[in-house]
């Protein structure tokens, strides 16, 4: 070997040692072949929780006269139950949406498979209702979009055993091109027609146009969430309960100051939480408050200043956010300081999408930041019982779901954090 070859070999060896994990590149946007079917055939079927023991089935037909009923039952092909619902549609510049149907079914039994058909036409779908008791598992992935990475994230979620999909904002990345909402609906239908998808809005849902369009029109029409069922007057924030867990889905893009509707609704909602019935309390919204990535630095500060004291007073266990296209997990924290009664903050805005990963982190890593990694992937929150939950993050590495981070989380209800009812920090929830 001459000197140059030796240097090359040394460089190669050191590169192999240093680069233990080579980040994959963004993947292409998926193309969807035009799929001919009858105008009354249901498309883009998805399911969401709609109050206790009820689910909302949402779908779209090209035909504006298709009926909004759902037939269902517990055996395939045998629908002994029927529910009638409502429908809406919208126009957006030159685009005219199909008929968007929303039909609530129930009361349903927990942990039960139901077979259903929408509008008396097309394929039979099947769904599984969530359990009434622990254990319950949430799959979590935000910032999905519709790229090759989205597809692999969805495939991995499909392989895990989960009851509910939680999506902390940024769904389709339609970004004004409305037909992309339709292709996104088709892409996720295999999963979203089978398990409830609970979503909250991100910046990519806004799609406002000065003087022409208010924000969130398409999102609100297509992704109706149980805001009425939870006493909220906006689809941009609401809450739901499932198997011993109370979840508040908040709006990073709705007003959040002390005089806002969201603030008063949240305060009222949190004061109704009964930790004997729901020992776990989760919160989810789009823009993270604890973020050591260079991307979107400080964007959550305004909401945090207003809302964090409420979440702390109510002893929220875990906060799930998106927006930053990388994964990060905090220690229990409140007001910037480590606090055994604060929430664990998880940023999981890395479901897929065409914008790629956020690779630059602040250096040094803040003390509260326990784990951070820029990769696409999804999270699983398996709430085992009233005291223990197992959180894991699975990156997409080489198309295999690889469990890169895992931690046991103990509920605040079992950690003595609820004991002092009259603690100074709690008074904010009780004040009129
Ligand atoms: C909850 O689950 C954890 C982990 O499996 C276990 O160690 C603990 O004993 C369980 N607690 C109760 C109250 O069942």
From TrEMBL:
Pfam families: Metallophos, Metallophos_C, Pur_ac_phosph_N. Its cofactor is Fe cation; Zn(2+). SUPFAM superfamilies: Metallo-dependent phosphatases (SSF56300), Purple acid phosphatase, N-terminal domain (SSF49363). Residues 1-19 form the signal peptide. The keyword Metal-binding does not apply. Residues 42-122 form the Purple acid phosphatase N-terminal domain. GO terms for molecular function: acid phosphatase activity; metal ion binding. It catalyses: a phosphate monoester + H2O = an alcohol + phosphate. Its EC number is 3.1.3.2. Residues 137-327 form the Calcineurin-like phosphoesterase domain. Residues 343-399 form the Purple acid phosphatase C-terminal domain. Keywords: Glycoprotein, Hydrolase, Signal, Zinc. Belongs to the metallophosphoesterase superfamily. Purple acid phosphatase family. This is Purple acid phosphatase. It comes from Nepenthes gracilis (Slender pitcher plant). The lineage of its organism: Eukaryota, Viridiplantae, Streptophyta, Embryophyta, Tracheophyta.
């Amino acid at each position: 070997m001459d000197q140059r070859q030796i240097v090359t070999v040394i460089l190669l060896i050191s590169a192999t040692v240093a680069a233990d994990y080579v980040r994959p590149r963004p993947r292409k946007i998926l193309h969807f072949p035009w799929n001919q079917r009858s105008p009354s055939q249901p498309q883009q079927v998805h399911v969401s929780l709609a109050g206790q023991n009820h689910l909302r089935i949402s779908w779209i037909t090209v035909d504006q006269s298709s009926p909004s009923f759902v037939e269902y039952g517990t055996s395939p092909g045998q629908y002994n139950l029927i529910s009638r619902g409502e429908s809406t549609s919208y126009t957006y510049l030159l685009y005219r949406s199909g008929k968007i149907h929303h039909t609530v079914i129930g009361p349903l039994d927990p942990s039960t498979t139901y077979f259903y058909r929408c509008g008396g036409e097309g394929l039979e779908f099947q769904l599984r209702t969530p359990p009434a008791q622990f254990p319950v598992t949430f799959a979590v992935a935000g910032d999905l979009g519709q790229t090759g990475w989205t597809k692999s994230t969805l495939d991995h979620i499909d392989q895990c055993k989960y009851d509910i999909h939680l999506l902390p904002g940024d769904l389709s990345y339609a970004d004004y091109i409305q037909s992309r909402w339709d292709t996104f609906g088709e892409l996720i239908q295999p999963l979203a027609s089978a398990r409830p998808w609970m979503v909250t809005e991100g910046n990519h849902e806004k799609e406002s146009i000065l003087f022409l369009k208010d924000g969130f029109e398409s999102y609100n029409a297509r992704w109706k969430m149980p805001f009425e069922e939870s006493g909220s007057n906006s689809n941009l924030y609401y809450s739901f309960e499932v198997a011993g867990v109370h979840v508040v889905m908040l709006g990073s893009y709705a007003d959040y100051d002390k005089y806002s509707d969201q603030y008063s609704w949240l305060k009222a909602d949190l004061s109704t939480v009964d930790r004997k019935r729901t020992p776990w309390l989760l919160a989810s919204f789009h823009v993270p408050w604890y973020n050591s990535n260079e991307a979107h630095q400080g964007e959550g500060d305004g909401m945090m200043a207003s809302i964090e004291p409420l979440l702390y007073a109510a002893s929220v266990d875990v906060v799930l956010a998106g927006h930053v296209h990388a994964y990060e997990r905090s220690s229990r924290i409140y007001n910037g300081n480590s606090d055994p009664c604060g929430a664990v903050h998880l940023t999981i805005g890395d479901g897929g999408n065409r914008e790629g990963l956020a690779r630059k982190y602040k250096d040094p890593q803040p003390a509260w930041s326990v784990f951070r990694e820029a990769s696409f992937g999804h999270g699983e929150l398996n709430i085992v019982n009233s005291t223990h939950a197992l959180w894991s993050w699975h990156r997409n590495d080489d198309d295999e779901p690889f469990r890169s981070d895992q931690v046991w989380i103990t509920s605040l209800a079992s950690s003595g954090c609820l004991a002092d009812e009259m603690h100074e920090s709690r008074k904010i929830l009780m004040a009129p």
